Amino acid sequence: MEYLEIKDLTFQYAGSNNLVLDNLSLSITQGEFILICGTSGSGKSTLLKLLKPQLAPNGKQTGTIYLNNESIDALPADFSTGKIGYVMQNPENQIVTESVWQELAFGLENLGTPPSEIKSRIAEMVNFLGIEELLEHQTSELSGGQMQLLNLTSVLLMKPDILILDEPTTQLDPITSQKFIDLIVRLNREMGLTILLVEHSLESVFALADQVIILDDGQVIFAGEPRSISNGMKKNKNVDRFVYSLPSAVQIYLNSSVDDDCPLTVVEGKRFLARYFPFRSFLQKETLTKKKMVKSIQLKNCWFRYEKKSRDILAGIDFEVYTGEIFSLVGGNGSGKTTLLKVIAGILDCYHGKLSLFEQSIKKNKGVVGYLPQESQMLFLKDSVIEEYKMYLQNQNVAEEDQKIRIKNVTTLLDLTKILTQHPLDLSGGECQRAALGKLLLTDSKILLLDEPTKGIDNFEKKQLIKLLKELSKQGKTILVVTHDLDFAAELSDRCGLLFQNKLVTTAEPTAFFSHHTFYTTAASRISRDNFEGLVTTEQVIKACRLVKGASDEPRRD
Amino acid sequence: MHPSFFRQTHPFATSSYYIAALLIVMSTTNPVIITCFFLSNVLLRLLDLNGKSKKSMLYPLFFIGMITVTNPLFVHRGATVIFFFLNKPITVEAFIYGFFMGMTIATVIYLFQNFQKAVDSEQFFYLFGKRFPKSGLILVLVLRLLPLLQKYHQELNQIQKNFQQTHRRHFFERARYGLDLFGHLFSWSLENAMDTADSMRARGYGVSTRSSCLTYRWQKKDTLFLTAIVLACLFFMVSMIKGFYQFNYYPYHDNVYRLMQKNWLSYLFLFGVAWLPLLKRLKEVIVWNILKSKI
Predict the structure, then answer these.
(1) Which of B151, B196, B201 sits opposite A93 (nearest CB)?
(2) Angstrom distances, CA of residue A407 to CA of A251, A471, B25
(3) Which of A156, A190, A224 is the C-terminal boundary of a domain?
(4) How far is B168 from chain A (nearest CA, A)?
(5) Which of A107, A139, A347 lies closest to B159 in CB terms?
(6) CATH code, domain with A380
(7) A-chain residues near B207 (CB < 8 A)
(8) Nearest-CA distance B196 → chain A (Å)
(9) B179 to chain A: nearest residue by CA?
(10) What's residue A163's pLDDT?
């Protein structure tokens, strides 16, 4: 029998008739790196929780999970606590104590480990991971990435055999999350830890996994090595909702008519394109005809800092966004992106510089700006979405008749019917974001500011969001997005800007912006730049493949 | 100064000093003792002052002013009448008594502040965590939750104020906004607490009896320190019973000098107790400077 064996597992939550997991069977060898994926609501998280007896949710369960031939429920509690490590999604909420030392020791203390051993284990682990500098901090001072690293370390200290990670990188920016994933891979390769990872952005992890398991509606629809799975998907086209989560190379392959092994990484994708498609340039000459457009947002030499003696967060920013344009601001952590949005939203005031909206001072333009914060639930104070909408409109002195019409319009536009009566905190990330966007649209805000809208939503929802925002911009709304997600920025925006060290370094159209950068760019651009010049999104590459398809389906001979 | 170099006194010894000091200050009304403890604690606090703690330094002084003013309004004992207010005598003795009562309260607050500085939450948890593991852990959790809540509240308030334009609204609307805000914060923290509880359970909270990774070595000087404190307490009690520290405010206040002359030894001893942390602190500064010159 395998190391971890799941046999005919069926589960439904107490008080619900839906089967979250439906006759699911899996077997996992010791030391494997397992990647579990699927769309929201496919039962991934439930499966992970059932694997950790301390977290098993309430409900009706049939079937058994075996660890080393023993039923997991029969294992003694102190054994299963230590042997099965579990890292959750939200970095901040998992932290229990105030100081990093205590946090690291927390698990070991619970198991009654003697102090001298706790100390030596912490010393060893901290050394291995190279996080000595964290020890001197309070937990509340850490960044999201450091917090998640701390959570992982405190689990590792208990010497687990299996490490379960439930979307550990969703709250992190791309560079930090890449580091985190690298670390997990290292733990797997060097320490032989069995790893079960749930992720929804697969660009970098997909090729690294020993086994990929794709869940849909509580059942395993694909399981196996990444390449064989991708090859299998080509034959079985019934995965449309899920396809967007896959790496660009795989997406390009699935949409082409080439029948070869699937490329998984950027390098393989490059080779794949070179082999089957001739070179063609898609570079467009820059259209120099600048139409006379209204500047909806204009910042002139804006300087901002939080406290008198702190450093500048915005240091002389000049920039403008035109009406009906979608502008994406990208940049690392602490480059001042969110602060810039807050200044434009009127939440913060810069100490020097001038902000004008629609070429007028902000005083004449009260209420034209709608700001969607990173935690979209912050827009809701009432117990249901509809109550919040009504109260908001009432505060704006909108007549009763008009209120109904507006709410109805927003509901149909954003597909909110199902969630109108729910509590905002019960909504999923994507739903809450739609509801929050709805609130901004109720008062017809002409400028929409979105702070990290892709955080915590899956790729399918991301596609829907792009569609929606493009639709809104066609209606004449100006949209300014701050994001870490380069693929999202490339696909969505009319112009992109890079904030670096509190200054705006470049602004350009996405094709120019991303095809000039070598590192700060999308995977699709890296794959295609040698073959199709001037393409930056996966969709563009797929289209290009179709365009030049006639040329050859056979390998190119040069 | 080198904080971790001198943080070697066992937290139990440090805590016993502060508990003893607290008991002494609270069990007497003697102006000499109170002034003495007040000055030593203010000075100690001034030594560790930084920008953020300025406010917490000032507000205990407010108690002195308040009680000095209010005590004569309610207490009309004392022989030296200054004037009559609403047909009631206002006396010098009541002023003096009020002043020293205010000072007692201020001293107690400074003592707590200094205690917090000397024994951080980690050491506190070490001291009380073993005896009261459940309540100790709750304390740690609360200490962790507070800054989180504060951060979230700040952000939420910022965003909501922008939406609601609260400054333009009536009192009732603003009150309702406050209630809604509180409701949101409450459900948010419950939601977060669920996650934290899961994380605790996943790491085996309650599986077996907890151990503690914190260890502090009990050194010879700690024994010495503790003995000194115990002796001081005993001495204080004996002097107290014998009435050496007896001081009457009403009807006439006693002569301080005569009292001190009569029982000089008891007072001298108590001065020593009051100035102990400050002397220790001074010694640390000197020792550190000597050590530093060798580097």
Answers:
(1) B196
(2) 38, 18, 65
(3) A224
(4) 11
(5) A347
(6) 3.40.50.300
(7) 77-78, 81, 110-111
(8) 5
(9) A381
(10) 95
Residue A242, domain member (yes or no): no
Q: Do A179 and A46 share a structural domain?
A: yes
Are the Cβ atoms of B203 and A114 closer than 8 angstroms?
A: no
pLDDT tens track for A426-472: 888 888 999 999 998 888 888 999 998 988 788 888 888 999 999 99
Question: Based on C-alpha coordinates, what's the Rg of chain A?
Answer: 25
**Residue (of A50, A80, A85, A53) closest to A68 by Cα position:** A80
Residue B16 belongs to what domain range?
3-126+222-294
Assign B135 to helix, strand or coil: helix
Question: How many other C-beta atoms can be found within 10 angstroms of the C-beta atom of residue B158?
Answer: 15
- For A93-157, give the secondary structure using H, E and C: CCCCCCEHHHHHHHHHHHCCCCHHHHHHHHHHHHHHHCCHHHHHCEHHHCCHHHHHHHHHHHHHC
Mean pLDDT along residues A77-104: 89
**Predicted confidence (pLDDT) per residue in B189-245, tens digit:** 888 888 888 898 899 887 877 777 777 888 888 899 899 889 888 988 898 888 888
Domain count, chain A: 2
Q: B163 and A379: CB-CB below 8 Å?
A: yes
Beta-carbon separation of B207 and A81 below 8 A: yes
A113 reaches B (C-beta below 8 A): yes
Rounded to a whole number of angstroms, the distance from the CA of B15 to the nearest CA of chain A is 21
- Asked whether A198 and A44 are in contact (CB, 8 A), the reply is yes
| Separation in Å, CA A158 to CA A154, A413, A558 | 7, 50, 57
Residues A163 and A87 sit within 8 Å (Cβ to Cβ): yes
Please, are residues B31 and B97 in contact by the beta-carbon 8 Å criterion?
A: no
CB contact under 8 A, B162 and A122: no
Q: Report whether the peptide linkage leading into residue B251 is cis, meaning its omega lies within 30 degrees of zero.
A: yes
Residue B107: phi and psi, rounded to 5, are -60, -45
Same domain, A203 and A328: no
Q: How many CB pairs under 8 A join A and B?
A: 141
- Residue A111 pLDDT exceeds 80: yes
Q: Do A112 and B140 touch (CB under 8 A)?
A: no
Q: Is residue B83 part of a domain?
A: yes
pLDDT tens across A481-530, in order?
A: 999 888 899 999 999 999 888 888 888 888 888 888 887 888 899 998 88
A90–chain B Cβ distance below 8 A for any pair: yes
Chain A residues whose beta carbon lies within 8 Å of the beta carbon of residue B205: 106, 110
The model scores a pTM over 0.80? yes
Q: Please tell me the distance from the alpha carbon of residue B144 to that of residue B130, in angstroms, as a whole number.
A: 19
Contact (CB<8Å) A119/B143: no
Q: Does A57 touch chain B (CB under 8 A)?
A: no
What confidence tens digit (pLDDT) does each residue in A201-217 have? 788 899 999 999 988 88
Q: How far is A234 from chain B (nearest CA, A)?
A: 39
**Does B1 contact chain A (CB < 8 Å)?**
no
- Same domain? For B118 and B247 the reply is yes
Contact B26, B20 (CB under 8 A): no
Domain boundary among A224, A255, A276: A224
**Number of neighbours of residue B295 by Cβ within 10 angstroms:** 4
Is some CB atom of chain B closer than 8 A to the CB atom of A112? Answer: yes
Residues of B in contact with A452 (CB under 8 A): none
